[in-house]
Amino acid sequence: MNSDSDLQIAGDILEVPHLLQAQREHPATVAEFVGLARSVAADRAQWEHLVEYDATTRWYHRLRTGPGYEVWLLSWVPGQGSGLHDHGLSSGVLTVLDGTLTERTERGTRALGAGAQRVFAPGYVHEVVNDTLEPAISLHVYFPGLTEMPMLPQSQLRSTGGTPMACARRSGAEPVDAVTA
Q: In this predicted structure, what is the pLDDT of residue 165?
């Protein structure tokens, strides 16, 4: 019986650097973009001092850029919303950092509390609103970087059960919850 271990036969893979995959400097997969959003969200010292609240318009700040992507920080006072829109050719990760935001789509309405994440493909149509009495903060990662955010007319809303929802979606891909609060 052969008692040689894999380590004795092949050697320690960590001792053979040419066999290891090079560590990527920037995210390249959906999971890595979700991970980027989580790591930025966890590092409050990186973003908390930047947050401002503006009663007249939604406040936003580009926090970071990388090859082909952008990270945005947004604040939402009670009653502020994005309007019905998509993100052009960009995919995205929406992460709620503080408070609660409501996302409305053709499939319904969903409350997103602190820690919740949504991942969506290009052409996904939604509206995000702070319909609570407390301010909210969100983090948005877009790949490729956001070059357009087409607004859709309110006439594209219909009422189902008293809740306005988008009646059009430009792509077949539904967003997924990466993390739920």
A: 33
- Please check the confidence at residue 7 and state whether its pLDDT lies above 90: no
Cα–Cα distance, 135 to 45 (Å, whole number)? 19
pLDDT digits (tens, 9 = 90+) for 38-76: 999 999 999 999 999 999 999 999 999 999 899 999 999
Q: Give the whole-angstrom CA distance, residue 144 versus residue 92.
A: 9
- 8 A C-beta contact, residue 117 and residue 36: no
CA nearest to 100, candidates 89, 111, 92? 111
Helix intervals (H) in the chain: 6-10, 30-42, 44-47
Q: Is the pLDDT of residue 142 over 80?
A: yes
d(CA 133, CA 109): 18
Q: Which two tokens stand for residue 25?
A: 């400097």
Residue whose C-alpha is closest to residue 112's, from 175, 158, 164: 175
